[in-house]
Amino acid sequence: MDNLKEQLKHIEQLEANVGVLAKITDLFSHDEVSSDEIEAILATDVALTASVLRVANSAARGGSVQVKSLRDAITRTGAKDIRRLVVAHSGSSAVGSDLEAYGISRDEAWRAAVAGAIAAEGMARRRGFSDPGMAFLAGLLRDCGKLAMEQIVGKVELGDAIRSKSPTDDEAVWEQEHFGFDHCEAGSELAMLWGLPDELAEAIRDHHHPSSREPQQLVDLVHCADAVCLMMGIGVGLDGLAYEMDKEACQRIDFELSELEMIGDDLRNGMDELVNVANGDENND
Amino acid sequence: MSIPKLESNGATHTVGIAEMTIVQASEGCLITHALGSCIGVTVFDPVAQVGGLLHFMLDQPRSTEHKGDKAAAMFATTGIPELFRLAYAQGAQKERLIVCAAGGADLLNPGGGMQIGRRNLLMMQRLFWKNGVPVAGESTGGGVARTMRLDLSTGTVSLNAAGREEVLWTI
Q: Which of A54, B15, B62, B150 has the least CB density, counted as fewest CB within 10 Å?
């Protein structure tokens, strides 16, 4: 484990933007968040400011009167959605990269991250979870350890190894057996290195096996969100649809078939905006 | 998921999850990605030059919120009839329609997850059987995600599943 921590410290590619991510997570852990505080964080990142302005002026946000100031953009978009946008934008460097060894393109990795975030947040809200925004962030970052795996093991070596694995083997179990750690563990260590909350790191660590430790609702939510994404074909890589869906976790959070309809609605309503924000492109409206 | 490179002179319409598209065009293509447990259904009338693609998520609505038309393309029971209705409205005729289907995979674990793919497949087959709709090409079930494409100039339906190309139907 210490060796893994040391190796992760040297992965520069994963460090971009996480400062903003940690700040925004900390900010929203308080009950009252003022526009001044949000503005102060957004103003530290030019690309982020541009993204927020673009979203505020999109047709979907009723942008017939153009918003020019960051303050007005925050007011129009609303604190809750600003948090989603900032988290998506800031987290994209950690989960929106090409995962060659896993057979997942950059766009697909990012779509999977966003879909998992939206699904986890929606499920959290429907269950009255204390912090749906934390579920969003945990869903978004759940697979951030995959990029770390590629860098530590090597893309070619990891890709060759994944291709040799049985299609029915669970990815995380298989990684543990072959490398002594898995992408969940690597992702959890990264989250701690970035100064993100412990509960988030634990959700990333246990999202493949939510019943392996003391049950936690956040872990169960992220597990089910992860399974739904894969089920729907989002973020599928070389190992296809190999995934052990934990029945006990589903039971603990009353995850039933009818919930898939709600998740479908959540994805239809929220995917495009967030995918485009992180891409920084012009297709927002 | 590997995405095939598209080379077409006409427009490429991407159909998202729980969406459908019907076009009357002699070139271009319709494509949908991420068919895991979801199923893609294509219809093509070579005479009327009408093509359509539905990407449905679930077999039938279970919550009261989805009983209306708001999310017709999300379900087999509402999306499939709507796909055919829209195709007929564009001039397609049932006896000329070439229908293909792909998807309906399930998670590869001992319990089979929630068996959404299997449920979707059974409902689609039931609807087709009940309405006398023959399926010209089908690639369903298993544990792979599929990308499905309908070429509007020829009616060819092709798939990319786990990096392998497959033609489901062609002239």
A: B62
Write the ipTM: 0.85
**Which DSSP category does B137 fall into?**
E
Decide which of 3.40.50.620, 1.10.3210.10, 3.40.630.30, 3.40.50.150 is the CATH code for A2-6+9-279.
1.10.3210.10
- Ordered domains of chain B (ranges, CATH): 12-169 (3.30.1330.200)
Residues B139 and B148 sit within 8 Å (Cβ to Cβ): no
- Regarding beta strands B98-103 and B157-161, do their DSSP bridges make them parallel or antiparallel, or are they unpaired? unpaired
pTM of the model: 0.86
pLDDT digit string, tens, across residues A61-119 = 776 777 878 888 888 888 778 888 887 877 777 777 789 999 998 888 989 999 999 99
Amino acid at B3: I
Among A83, A214, A213, A96, smallest CA distance to A144 is for A96
**B18-63 tens-digit pLDDT:** 999 999 988 899 999 989 999 999 999 999 999 999 999 999 998 7
Provide φ and ψ at B26, rounded to 5°. -100, -5
Chain B residue nearest residue A101, CA to CA = B1
**Which among B18, B63, B163 is the nearest to A258, CB-wise?**
B63
Q: Taking CB atoms and an 8 Å limit, are A258 and B36 in contact across chains?
A: no
Nearest chain A Cα distance for residue B169, angstroms: 23
Domain borders along chain A are 2-6+9-279
Query: Closest approach of chain A CAs to the CA of B143, in angstroms?
Result: 5
